[in-house]
Amino acid sequence: MSDVILSIKDLKVSYGGIEAVKGISFDVKQGEIVTLIGANGAGKSSTLRAIAGLVKPSGGSISFEGEDITAADPTEIVKRGVTLVPEGRRIFADLTVLENLKIGAYLRHDDLKDDIEWVYSLFPRLKERSWQPGGTLSGGEQQMLAVARALMSRPKLIMMDEPSLGLAPIIVRGIFDIIREIHRQGVTILLIEQNANMALQTADTGYVLETGRIGLSGTGAELLSNEDVKRAYLGS
Amino acid sequence: MQFAVSILLSGISVGGQYALIAIGYTLVYGILRLINFAHGDVFMTAGLILVYASASMPLYISVPLMIVAIAALGFCIERVAYKPLRSAPRMSVMISAIGVSFLIQNFATYYTGGLPQSYPRLPFLSESVVIYGTSTKWVTIITPFLVVALVVALQILINKTKIGLAMRAAAKDFETCQLMGIKINSVISFTFVVGSILAAIGSLLYFTNYTQIVPLSGSMPGLKAFVAAVFGGIGSIPGAVIGAFIIGICENIIKGTSFTVFSDAFTFALLIIILVLKPTGLFGEKVTDKV
User: Do A86 and B175 touch (CB under 8 A)?
Assistant: First the structure.
Protein backbone atom coordinates (compact mmCIF):
# COMPACT_ATOMS: atom_id res chain seq x y z
CA MET A 1 0.00 0.00 0.00
CA SER A 2 2.92 2.36 -0.01
CA ASP A 3 3.60 2.70 -3.72
CA VAL A 4 3.87 6.25 -4.93
CA ILE A 5 1.11 6.84 -7.48
CA LEU A 6 1.46 10.56 -8.03
CA SER A 7 4.84 12.19 -8.08
CA ILE A 8 5.39 15.91 -8.50
CA LYS A 9 8.92 17.12 -9.19
CA ASP A 10 9.95 20.76 -9.13
CA LEU A 11 6.56 21.88 -10.47
CA LYS A 12 6.33 25.49 -11.61
CA VAL A 13 3.18 27.23 -12.76
CA SER A 14 3.00 30.81 -13.95
CA TYR A 15 0.26 33.07 -15.16
CA GLY A 16 1.46 35.76 -17.51
CA GLY A 17 4.89 36.05 -15.97
CA ILE A 18 3.78 35.75 -12.37
CA GLU A 19 4.97 32.53 -10.85
CA ALA A 20 2.23 31.09 -8.65
CA VAL A 21 3.98 27.81 -7.94
CA LYS A 22 7.75 28.09 -7.63
CA GLY A 23 9.11 24.59 -7.87
CA ILE A 24 7.39 22.21 -5.49
CA SER A 25 7.96 18.49 -5.16
CA PHE A 26 5.87 15.93 -3.31
CA ASP A 27 4.59 12.39 -3.63
CA VAL A 28 1.20 10.87 -3.03
CA LYS A 29 1.20 7.22 -2.05
CA GLN A 30 -1.44 4.72 -3.00
CA GLY A 31 -4.30 4.69 -0.50
CA GLU A 32 -3.26 7.83 1.38
CA ILE A 33 -5.00 11.06 2.15
CA VAL A 34 -2.54 13.85 1.43
CA THR A 35 -3.35 17.45 2.15
CA LEU A 36 -1.82 20.71 0.99
CA ILE A 37 -2.64 23.58 3.26
CA GLY A 38 -1.76 27.21 2.95
CA ALA A 39 -3.16 30.70 2.79
CA ASN A 40 -4.82 32.33 -0.21
CA GLY A 41 -2.40 32.71 -3.08
CA ALA A 42 0.00 30.07 -1.79
CA GLY A 43 -0.37 28.15 -5.06
CA LYS A 44 -2.61 25.32 -3.89
CA SER A 45 -5.25 25.56 -6.59
CA SER A 46 -2.66 26.15 -9.28
CA THR A 47 -0.94 22.92 -8.29
CA LEU A 48 -4.14 20.91 -8.62
CA ARG A 49 -5.07 22.62 -11.88
CA ALA A 50 -1.68 21.76 -13.30
CA ILE A 51 -2.06 18.11 -12.28
CA ALA A 52 -5.53 17.98 -13.86
CA GLY A 53 -4.14 19.42 -17.09
CA LEU A 54 -6.15 22.65 -16.98
CA VAL A 55 -3.02 24.78 -16.95
CA LYS A 56 0.28 23.84 -18.52
CA PRO A 57 3.13 23.88 -16.02
CA SER A 58 6.01 26.19 -16.90
CA GLY A 59 8.49 23.71 -15.49
CA GLY A 60 8.94 20.45 -13.64
CA SER A 61 7.19 17.15 -14.11
CA ILE A 62 4.11 15.29 -12.97
CA SER A 63 3.93 11.54 -13.17
CA PHE A 64 1.05 9.24 -12.38
CA GLU A 65 1.57 5.51 -11.86
CA GLY A 66 5.09 5.90 -13.19
CA GLU A 67 4.04 7.58 -16.43
CA ASP A 68 4.66 11.19 -17.29
CA ILE A 69 1.44 13.21 -17.52
CA THR A 70 3.00 16.68 -17.54
CA ALA A 71 1.00 18.89 -19.89
CA ALA A 72 -1.20 16.00 -21.04
CA ASP A 73 -4.69 17.03 -21.95
CA PRO A 74 -7.41 16.94 -19.31
CA THR A 75 -9.29 14.16 -21.12
CA GLU A 76 -6.21 11.95 -21.11
CA ILE A 77 -5.65 12.60 -17.41
CA VAL A 78 -9.24 11.74 -16.49
CA LYS A 79 -8.90 8.57 -18.58
CA ARG A 80 -5.92 7.52 -16.49
CA GLY A 81 -7.95 7.83 -13.31
CA VAL A 82 -7.16 11.26 -11.91
CA THR A 83 -10.09 13.54 -11.25
CA LEU A 84 -10.51 16.98 -9.75
CA VAL A 85 -13.43 18.27 -7.70
CA PRO A 86 -13.02 21.94 -8.59
CA GLU A 87 -13.11 24.87 -6.25
CA GLY A 88 -16.57 26.32 -5.88
CA ARG A 89 -18.14 22.94 -6.78
CA ARG A 90 -18.93 23.92 -10.37
CA ILE A 91 -21.82 21.55 -10.75
CA PHE A 92 -23.94 21.93 -13.89
CA ALA A 93 -26.83 24.00 -12.56
CA ASP A 94 -29.21 23.30 -15.46
CA LEU A 95 -28.63 19.58 -15.54
CA THR A 96 -30.49 17.31 -13.16
CA VAL A 97 -28.64 15.56 -10.35
CA LEU A 98 -28.75 12.32 -12.32
CA GLU A 99 -27.43 14.01 -15.47
CA ASN A 100 -24.62 15.54 -13.45
CA LEU A 101 -23.68 12.05 -12.32
CA LYS A 102 -23.88 10.70 -15.86
CA ILE A 103 -21.66 13.43 -17.20
CA GLY A 104 -19.10 12.52 -14.54
CA ALA A 105 -18.89 9.12 -16.22
CA TYR A 106 -18.64 10.66 -19.70
CA LEU A 107 -15.60 8.66 -20.73
CA ARG A 108 -17.02 5.33 -19.62
CA HIS A 109 -18.97 3.17 -21.98
CA ASP A 110 -20.07 0.44 -19.58
CA ASP A 111 -23.22 0.18 -17.50
CA LEU A 112 -23.47 2.93 -14.92
CA LYS A 113 -26.31 1.49 -12.85
CA ASP A 114 -24.18 -0.03 -10.09
CA ASP A 115 -22.08 3.10 -9.74
CA ILE A 116 -25.11 5.34 -9.58
CA GLU A 117 -26.50 3.10 -6.83
CA TRP A 118 -23.12 3.23 -5.11
CA VAL A 119 -22.89 7.04 -5.04
CA TYR A 120 -26.54 7.26 -4.02
CA SER A 121 -25.74 4.97 -1.08
CA LEU A 122 -22.90 7.33 -0.14
CA PHE A 123 -25.15 10.38 -0.57
CA PRO A 124 -28.78 9.41 0.12
CA ARG A 125 -29.75 13.09 -0.16
CA LEU A 126 -28.84 13.09 -3.83
CA LYS A 127 -31.06 10.10 -4.49
CA GLU A 128 -34.05 12.00 -3.12
CA ARG A 129 -33.21 14.88 -5.44
CA SER A 130 -32.30 12.86 -8.47
CA TRP A 131 -34.63 14.77 -10.84
CA GLN A 132 -33.98 18.25 -9.53
CA PRO A 133 -31.72 20.62 -11.46
CA GLY A 134 -28.33 20.78 -9.77
CA GLY A 135 -28.67 24.53 -9.29
CA THR A 136 -31.58 24.12 -6.89
CA LEU A 137 -29.52 22.16 -4.35
CA SER A 138 -28.11 23.74 -1.21
CA GLY A 139 -24.39 24.46 -0.98
CA GLY A 140 -23.65 21.30 0.97
CA GLU A 141 -25.68 19.17 -1.41
CA GLN A 142 -23.91 20.73 -4.37
CA GLN A 143 -20.59 19.80 -2.79
CA MET A 144 -21.82 16.24 -2.35
CA LEU A 145 -22.90 16.24 -5.98
CA ALA A 146 -19.51 17.52 -7.09
CA VAL A 147 -17.79 14.71 -5.17
CA ALA A 148 -20.29 12.11 -6.41
CA ARG A 149 -19.84 13.31 -9.99
CA ALA A 150 -16.08 12.92 -9.66
CA LEU A 151 -16.50 9.41 -8.23
CA MET A 152 -18.55 8.38 -11.26
CA SER A 153 -15.39 8.30 -13.36
CA ARG A 154 -14.10 5.55 -11.03
CA PRO A 155 -10.94 7.50 -10.19
CA LYS A 156 -7.82 6.08 -8.63
CA LEU A 157 -6.90 9.51 -7.34
CA ILE A 158 -9.45 12.15 -6.47
CA MET A 159 -8.27 15.71 -5.90
CA MET A 160 -10.45 18.13 -4.00
CA ASP A 161 -10.05 21.88 -4.09
CA GLU A 162 -11.41 23.39 -0.88
CA PRO A 163 -14.44 21.17 -0.42
CA SER A 164 -15.38 22.99 2.78
CA LEU A 165 -15.41 26.47 1.26
CA GLY A 166 -18.45 28.47 2.26
CA LEU A 167 -20.18 25.65 4.11
CA ALA A 168 -21.52 25.64 7.67
CA PRO A 169 -19.32 23.80 10.22
CA ILE A 170 -21.79 20.95 10.62
CA ILE A 171 -21.87 20.41 6.85
CA VAL A 172 -18.08 20.58 6.74
CA ARG A 173 -17.91 17.71 9.24
CA GLY A 174 -20.26 15.75 7.00
CA ILE A 175 -18.03 16.41 4.00
CA PHE A 176 -14.97 15.19 5.87
CA ASP A 177 -16.85 12.04 6.96
CA ILE A 178 -17.51 11.39 3.30
CA ILE A 179 -13.86 11.97 2.43
CA ARG A 180 -12.87 9.35 5.03
CA GLU A 181 -15.55 6.99 3.70
CA ILE A 182 -14.32 7.33 0.11
CA HIS A 183 -10.81 6.74 1.36
CA ARG A 184 -11.89 3.55 3.15
CA GLN A 185 -13.22 2.34 -0.18
CA GLY A 186 -9.71 2.50 -1.58
CA VAL A 187 -9.55 5.85 -3.39
CA THR A 188 -6.41 7.92 -2.89
CA ILE A 189 -7.16 11.51 -2.00
CA LEU A 190 -5.27 14.76 -2.52
CA LEU A 191 -7.02 17.47 -0.60
CA ILE A 192 -6.35 21.16 -0.43
CA GLU A 193 -7.91 23.20 2.28
CA GLN A 194 -7.87 26.44 4.13
CA ASN A 195 -9.58 24.67 6.98
CA ALA A 196 -6.22 23.35 8.15
CA ASN A 197 -7.56 21.85 11.36
CA MET A 198 -10.05 19.49 9.71
CA ALA A 199 -7.70 18.71 6.84
CA LEU A 200 -4.78 17.76 9.06
CA GLN A 201 -6.96 15.64 11.34
CA THR A 202 -8.08 13.67 8.32
CA ALA A 203 -4.83 13.44 6.38
CA ASP A 204 -2.01 10.89 6.56
CA THR A 205 0.50 13.36 5.18
CA GLY A 206 0.39 17.13 5.00
CA TYR A 207 2.37 19.80 3.20
CA VAL A 208 2.27 23.47 4.04
CA LEU A 209 2.50 25.74 1.01
CA GLU A 210 3.82 29.27 1.43
CA THR A 211 3.87 31.60 -1.59
CA GLY A 212 4.54 28.87 -4.09
CA ARG A 213 6.94 26.77 -2.05
CA ILE A 214 6.56 23.92 0.39
CA GLY A 215 7.44 25.25 3.81
CA LEU A 216 6.81 22.28 6.05
CA SER A 217 5.79 18.69 5.69
CA GLY A 218 4.97 15.82 7.97
CA THR A 219 2.17 13.54 9.04
CA GLY A 220 -1.15 15.15 9.81
CA ALA A 221 -0.63 14.74 13.53
CA GLU A 222 2.89 16.21 13.45
CA LEU A 223 1.74 19.30 11.64
CA LEU A 224 -1.22 19.72 13.95
CA SER A 225 1.14 19.98 16.91
CA ASN A 226 3.75 22.10 15.12
CA GLU A 227 4.00 25.53 16.73
CA ASP A 228 4.45 27.43 13.46
CA VAL A 229 1.48 25.75 11.87
CA LYS A 230 -0.60 26.39 14.95
CA ARG A 231 0.23 30.04 14.92
CA ALA A 232 -0.25 30.59 11.22
CA TYR A 233 -3.14 28.34 10.30
CA LEU A 234 -4.90 27.06 13.38
CA GLY A 235 -5.39 30.38 15.08
CA SER A 236 -3.97 29.44 18.44
CA MET B 1 -60.56 33.62 -47.48
CA GLN B 2 -58.38 32.42 -50.31
CA PHE B 3 -56.16 35.41 -49.82
CA ALA B 4 -55.83 34.74 -46.09
CA VAL B 5 -54.99 31.09 -46.65
CA SER B 6 -52.37 31.95 -49.19
CA ILE B 7 -50.75 34.51 -46.88
CA LEU B 8 -50.81 32.17 -43.93
CA LEU B 9 -49.40 29.28 -45.96
CA SER B 10 -46.50 31.24 -47.34
CA GLY B 11 -45.92 32.86 -43.95
CA ILE B 12 -45.64 29.49 -42.24
CA SER B 13 -43.44 28.19 -45.01
CA VAL B 14 -41.03 31.12 -44.99
CA GLY B 15 -41.07 31.00 -41.20
CA GLY B 16 -40.05 27.35 -41.28
CA GLN B 17 -37.18 28.14 -43.61
CA TYR B 18 -35.99 30.94 -41.33
CA ALA B 19 -36.34 28.54 -38.41
CA LEU B 20 -33.85 26.09 -39.89
CA ILE B 21 -31.29 28.88 -40.24
CA ALA B 22 -32.14 30.40 -36.86
CA ILE B 23 -31.43 27.11 -35.09
CA GLY B 24 -27.88 27.27 -36.41
CA TYR B 25 -27.41 30.73 -34.88
CA THR B 26 -28.93 29.74 -31.58
CA LEU B 27 -26.99 26.47 -31.24
CA VAL B 28 -23.67 28.14 -31.84
CA TYR B 29 -24.54 31.07 -29.62
CA GLY B 30 -25.63 28.68 -26.87
CA ILE B 31 -22.27 27.00 -26.76
CA LEU B 32 -19.75 29.68 -27.83
CA ARG B 33 -21.63 32.91 -27.08
CA LEU B 34 -20.81 33.85 -30.65
CA ILE B 35 -23.09 35.25 -33.33
CA ASN B 36 -21.86 33.29 -36.31
CA PHE B 37 -22.27 35.95 -38.97
CA ALA B 38 -21.05 33.55 -41.62
CA HIS B 39 -24.08 31.34 -41.13
CA GLY B 40 -26.24 33.11 -43.73
CA ASP B 41 -23.43 32.75 -46.24
CA VAL B 42 -23.09 29.07 -45.47
CA PHE B 43 -26.77 28.91 -46.33
CA MET B 44 -26.13 30.68 -49.64
CA THR B 45 -23.16 28.38 -50.36
CA ALA B 46 -25.47 25.41 -49.89
CA GLY B 47 -27.62 26.79 -52.68
CA LEU B 48 -24.67 27.46 -54.98
CA ILE B 49 -23.14 24.04 -54.40
CA LEU B 50 -26.42 22.45 -55.42
CA VAL B 51 -26.52 24.61 -58.55
CA TYR B 52 -23.10 23.37 -59.62
CA ALA B 53 -23.47 19.80 -58.39
CA SER B 54 -26.85 19.28 -60.03
CA ALA B 55 -25.42 20.45 -63.35
CA SER B 56 -23.31 17.32 -63.60
CA MET B 57 -25.02 14.85 -61.29
CA PRO B 58 -28.55 13.62 -60.74
CA LEU B 59 -30.33 15.17 -57.75
CA TYR B 60 -30.35 12.00 -55.64
CA ILE B 61 -26.54 12.25 -55.57
CA SER B 62 -26.07 16.00 -55.63
CA VAL B 63 -28.44 16.77 -52.74
CA PRO B 64 -26.75 14.41 -50.22
CA LEU B 65 -23.37 15.54 -51.55
CA MET B 66 -24.31 19.18 -50.98
CA ILE B 67 -25.41 18.43 -47.39
CA VAL B 68 -22.12 16.64 -46.65
CA ALA B 69 -20.13 19.48 -48.23
CA ILE B 70 -21.95 22.06 -46.13
CA ALA B 71 -21.38 20.05 -42.94
CA ALA B 72 -17.68 19.99 -43.85
CA LEU B 73 -17.73 23.73 -44.55
CA GLY B 74 -19.25 24.42 -41.12
CA PHE B 75 -16.62 22.22 -39.50
CA CYS B 76 -13.77 23.94 -41.35
CA ILE B 77 -15.00 27.47 -40.61
CA GLU B 78 -15.02 26.68 -36.91
CA ARG B 79 -11.58 25.02 -36.96
CA VAL B 80 -9.90 27.72 -39.04
CA ALA B 81 -11.61 30.93 -37.96
CA TYR B 82 -12.93 30.39 -34.42
CA LYS B 83 -10.93 27.67 -32.69
CA PRO B 84 -7.61 29.56 -32.72
CA LEU B 85 -9.45 32.42 -30.97
CA ARG B 86 -10.91 30.28 -28.20
CA SER B 87 -9.33 32.28 -25.41
CA ALA B 88 -9.39 35.62 -27.23
CA PRO B 89 -11.94 38.30 -26.31
CA ARG B 90 -15.39 37.66 -27.75
CA MET B 91 -15.11 40.73 -29.97
CA SER B 92 -12.18 39.20 -31.87
CA VAL B 93 -14.17 36.06 -32.64
CA MET B 94 -17.07 38.16 -33.86
CA ILE B 95 -14.80 40.12 -36.18
CA SER B 96 -13.43 36.82 -37.44
CA ALA B 97 -17.02 35.71 -38.13
CA ILE B 98 -17.68 38.88 -40.14
CA GLY B 99 -14.45 38.22 -42.02
CA VAL B 100 -15.54 34.69 -42.90
CA SER B 101 -18.85 36.08 -44.09
CA PHE B 102 -17.14 38.49 -46.49
CA LEU B 103 -14.70 35.83 -47.59
CA ILE B 104 -17.52 33.46 -48.58
CA GLN B 105 -19.50 36.21 -50.34
CA ASN B 106 -16.51 37.39 -52.30
CA PHE B 107 -15.37 33.92 -53.16
CA ALA B 108 -18.87 33.22 -54.44
CA THR B 109 -18.80 36.42 -56.47
CA TYR B 110 -15.46 35.44 -57.94
CA TYR B 111 -16.56 31.91 -58.73
CA THR B 112 -19.91 32.81 -60.26
CA GLY B 113 -18.53 35.90 -61.93
CA GLY B 114 -21.23 37.80 -60.08
CA LEU B 115 -23.87 36.37 -62.38
CA PRO B 116 -27.11 35.04 -60.93
CA GLN B 117 -27.21 31.26 -61.07
CA SER B 118 -30.49 29.54 -61.73
CA TYR B 119 -31.52 27.13 -59.04
CA PRO B 120 -32.42 23.63 -60.22
CA ARG B 121 -36.05 22.61 -60.24
CA LEU B 122 -36.49 20.03 -57.54
CA PRO B 123 -38.97 17.30 -58.42
CA PHE B 124 -42.04 17.18 -56.17
CA LEU B 125 -41.03 20.22 -54.06
CA SER B 126 -41.49 22.56 -57.03
CA GLU B 127 -44.75 20.96 -58.23
CA SER B 128 -47.93 22.92 -57.74
CA VAL B 129 -50.79 21.93 -55.51
CA VAL B 130 -54.17 23.55 -54.88
CA ILE B 131 -55.27 24.00 -51.27
CA TYR B 132 -58.57 25.74 -50.41
CA GLY B 133 -58.58 27.16 -53.89
CA THR B 134 -55.08 28.55 -53.47
CA SER B 135 -52.41 27.34 -55.80
CA THR B 136 -49.03 26.87 -54.18
CA LYS B 137 -45.93 24.70 -54.37
CA TRP B 138 -45.57 21.48 -52.42
CA VAL B 139 -42.58 22.95 -50.61
CA THR B 140 -44.93 25.37 -48.86
CA ILE B 141 -46.97 22.50 -47.45
CA ILE B 142 -44.02 20.30 -46.56
CA THR B 143 -41.82 22.92 -44.88
CA PRO B 144 -43.68 23.23 -41.56
CA PHE B 145 -43.92 19.45 -41.13
CA LEU B 146 -40.28 18.93 -41.99
CA VAL B 147 -39.25 21.71 -39.61
CA VAL B 148 -41.28 20.26 -36.75
CA ALA B 149 -39.84 16.78 -37.41
CA LEU B 150 -36.27 18.14 -37.46
CA VAL B 151 -36.82 20.17 -34.29
CA VAL B 152 -38.19 17.12 -32.49
CA ALA B 153 -35.19 15.08 -33.65
CA LEU B 154 -32.88 17.84 -32.49
CA GLN B 155 -34.54 17.99 -29.08
CA ILE B 156 -34.11 14.24 -28.71
CA LEU B 157 -30.48 14.58 -29.70
CA ILE B 158 -29.90 17.31 -27.14
CA ASN B 159 -31.91 15.88 -24.28
CA LYS B 160 -31.45 12.14 -24.59
CA THR B 161 -28.00 11.44 -26.01
CA LYS B 162 -24.55 11.62 -24.50
CA ILE B 163 -23.28 14.19 -27.00
CA GLY B 164 -26.40 16.25 -26.27
CA LEU B 165 -25.60 16.10 -22.56
CA ALA B 166 -22.09 17.31 -23.34
CA MET B 167 -23.52 20.14 -25.47
CA ARG B 168 -25.77 21.31 -22.67
CA ALA B 169 -22.91 21.12 -20.18
CA ALA B 170 -20.47 22.87 -22.50
CA ALA B 171 -22.95 25.70 -22.91
CA LYS B 172 -22.37 26.53 -19.26
CA ASP B 173 -18.83 25.67 -18.29
CA PHE B 174 -15.98 24.62 -20.60
CA GLU B 175 -13.47 24.02 -17.88
CA THR B 176 -15.59 21.72 -15.78
CA CYS B 177 -16.52 19.84 -18.95
CA GLN B 178 -12.84 19.20 -19.53
CA LEU B 179 -12.57 17.83 -16.00
CA MET B 180 -15.29 15.34 -16.94
CA GLY B 181 -13.12 14.20 -19.82
CA ILE B 182 -15.26 15.89 -22.48
CA LYS B 183 -13.32 16.96 -25.56
CA ILE B 184 -14.69 20.44 -25.83
CA ASN B 185 -13.47 21.01 -29.39
CA SER B 186 -15.30 17.94 -30.65
CA VAL B 187 -18.50 19.12 -29.03
CA ILE B 188 -18.15 22.55 -30.64
CA SER B 189 -17.38 21.04 -34.04
CA PHE B 190 -20.39 18.79 -33.73
CA THR B 191 -22.57 21.81 -32.97
CA PHE B 192 -21.35 23.58 -36.11
CA VAL B 193 -21.95 20.49 -38.20
CA VAL B 194 -25.53 20.12 -36.93
CA GLY B 195 -26.24 23.82 -37.51
CA SER B 196 -24.79 23.69 -41.02
CA ILE B 197 -26.79 20.60 -41.99
CA LEU B 198 -30.00 22.32 -40.91
CA ALA B 199 -29.05 25.38 -42.96
CA ALA B 200 -28.38 23.11 -45.95
CA ILE B 201 -31.83 21.57 -45.64
CA GLY B 202 -33.27 25.05 -45.20
CA SER B 203 -31.59 26.17 -48.41
CA LEU B 204 -33.30 23.39 -50.37
CA LEU B 205 -36.67 24.63 -49.18
CA TYR B 206 -35.92 28.32 -49.46
CA PHE B 207 -34.35 28.49 -52.89
CA THR B 208 -37.06 26.31 -54.39
CA ASN B 209 -39.24 29.41 -54.13
CA TYR B 210 -36.72 31.52 -56.00
CA THR B 211 -35.38 30.95 -59.43
CA GLN B 212 -31.95 32.44 -58.94
CA ILE B 213 -29.10 32.70 -56.47
CA VAL B 214 -26.61 35.53 -56.18
CA PRO B 215 -23.67 35.67 -53.75
CA LEU B 216 -25.66 37.94 -51.46
CA SER B 217 -28.71 35.66 -51.38
CA GLY B 218 -27.76 34.42 -47.94
CA SER B 219 -27.50 37.73 -46.17
CA MET B 220 -31.17 38.73 -45.99
CA PRO B 221 -32.56 35.37 -44.86
CA GLY B 222 -29.51 35.06 -42.59
CA LEU B 223 -30.22 38.41 -40.94
CA LYS B 224 -33.90 37.64 -40.58
CA ALA B 225 -33.16 34.26 -39.04
CA PHE B 226 -30.79 36.03 -36.67
CA VAL B 227 -33.57 38.44 -35.70
CA ALA B 228 -35.83 35.42 -35.19
CA ALA B 229 -33.26 33.81 -32.91
CA VAL B 230 -32.93 37.00 -30.86
CA PHE B 231 -36.69 37.46 -30.81
CA GLY B 232 -37.21 33.95 -29.45
CA GLY B 233 -34.36 34.29 -26.98
CA ILE B 234 -30.98 33.43 -28.41
CA GLY B 235 -29.66 30.14 -27.09
CA SER B 236 -33.14 28.61 -27.00
CA ILE B 237 -34.14 26.24 -29.79
CA PRO B 238 -37.93 26.41 -29.32
CA GLY B 239 -37.51 30.19 -29.07
CA ALA B 240 -35.71 30.37 -32.41
CA VAL B 241 -38.36 28.25 -34.10
CA ILE B 242 -41.31 30.17 -32.71
CA GLY B 243 -39.58 33.49 -33.40
CA ALA B 244 -38.97 32.42 -36.99
CA PHE B 245 -42.60 31.42 -37.55
CA ILE B 246 -43.84 34.70 -36.07
CA ILE B 247 -41.52 36.73 -38.28
CA GLY B 248 -42.38 34.68 -41.37
CA ILE B 249 -46.09 35.08 -40.84
CA CYS B 250 -46.00 38.80 -39.95
CA GLU B 251 -43.79 39.51 -42.91
CA ASN B 252 -46.24 37.85 -45.27
CA ILE B 253 -49.21 39.61 -43.71
CA ILE B 254 -47.50 42.92 -44.34
CA LYS B 255 -46.67 41.85 -47.88
CA GLY B 256 -50.39 41.28 -48.36
CA THR B 257 -51.23 44.89 -47.51
CA SER B 258 -50.31 48.08 -49.28
CA PHE B 259 -47.24 48.41 -47.03
CA THR B 260 -45.33 45.70 -48.90
CA VAL B 261 -42.15 47.74 -49.07
CA PHE B 262 -42.01 47.85 -45.29
CA SER B 263 -41.96 44.08 -44.76
CA ASP B 264 -38.19 43.95 -44.19
CA ALA B 265 -38.25 47.12 -42.13
CA PHE B 266 -40.86 45.49 -39.92
CA THR B 267 -38.51 42.61 -39.09
CA PHE B 268 -35.76 44.92 -37.96
CA ALA B 269 -38.12 47.24 -36.13
CA LEU B 270 -39.22 44.14 -34.25
CA LEU B 271 -35.60 43.47 -33.34
CA ILE B 272 -35.24 46.97 -31.91
CA ILE B 273 -38.47 46.66 -29.93
CA ILE B 274 -37.42 43.30 -28.50
CA LEU B 275 -33.98 44.56 -27.54
CA VAL B 276 -35.55 47.49 -25.75
CA LEU B 277 -38.42 45.72 -24.01
CA LYS B 278 -37.15 42.22 -23.37
CA PRO B 279 -33.47 41.85 -24.26
CA THR B 280 -33.50 38.14 -23.43
CA GLY B 281 -36.25 37.44 -25.96
CA LEU B 282 -39.40 35.38 -25.55
CA PHE B 283 -37.67 32.30 -24.14
CA GLY B 284 -34.43 33.87 -23.00
CA GLU B 285 -32.08 31.84 -20.87
CA LYS B 286 -33.46 31.34 -17.45
CA VAL B 287 -30.94 31.82 -14.73
CA THR B 288 -31.04 29.21 -12.01
CA ASP B 289 -30.30 30.90 -8.75
CA LYS B 290 -27.63 29.27 -6.66
CA VAL B 291 -28.79 28.54 -3.15
Answer: yes
